[in-house]
Amino acid sequence: MDASQFKRLFIPHTDQLYRVALRLTNNQQAAEDLVQDTFLRLWTRRNDLPEDISSVGYALTTMRRIYYDGMRQGHINEVDKPADSVAEAADTDISRQTETIDMGEKLKGLMLRLPDNQRQVMMMRDMEGLSASQIRELTGLSEANVRTLLCRARTTVRKQLKQLLSYGCK
Questions:
Q1: C-alpha span between 130 and 23 (Å, rounded)
Q2: Nearest CA to 20 among 75, 57, 69?
Q3: What is the rounded CA–CA span in Å between residue 52 and residue 55?
Q4: Can you list the pairs that 2-9 forms with residues at least 24 positions away whose Cβ atoms lie under 8 Å?
Q5: Below-50 pLDDT ranges, the chain
Q6: How far is C-alpha 120 from the geometric centre of its chain's CA atoms?
Q7: 3-state SS, one letter per residue, for 94-130
Q8: Looking at the whole model, is its pTM more than 0.70?
């Protein structure tokens, strides 16, 4: 694959990749780095890519794998958020804002404890807004398996969140 084919296949999806990366990292700089790492990996493996791929699906899957590999290796701290990303309306109470931020961090922490396949499906569905059929295409799982993993992940997070709240950890 030459540079013009690569550009034609992958560059038009840069905005979509960036939006997903931003949802994953909650940080503009980390999202930009993740997109660049994705393009670098795609470029270095351009000659090994299958002919009949969905370019956007392949790029998104590659990016997610890079992200999750980085999380597993401890290179990415997902809980860090820039201050401007949590700004709410001026008329809200500071303590309520702090509580909302803390709850979001606790939810992310609970999601990080899920098994890899459950966490991946839950993030794709709830954070990226992908449908079950889109997740099926990207992961290779059956649609029923996607729904089962999503149900189990949500149930686990819900139970753990109830436990946290019952111990007075608001």
A1: 13
A2: 57
A3: 9
A4: 6/42, 6/43, 6/46, 9/55
A5: 78-91, 170
A6: 7
A7: HHHHHHHHHHHHHHHHHHHCCCHHHHHHHHHHHHCCC
A8: no
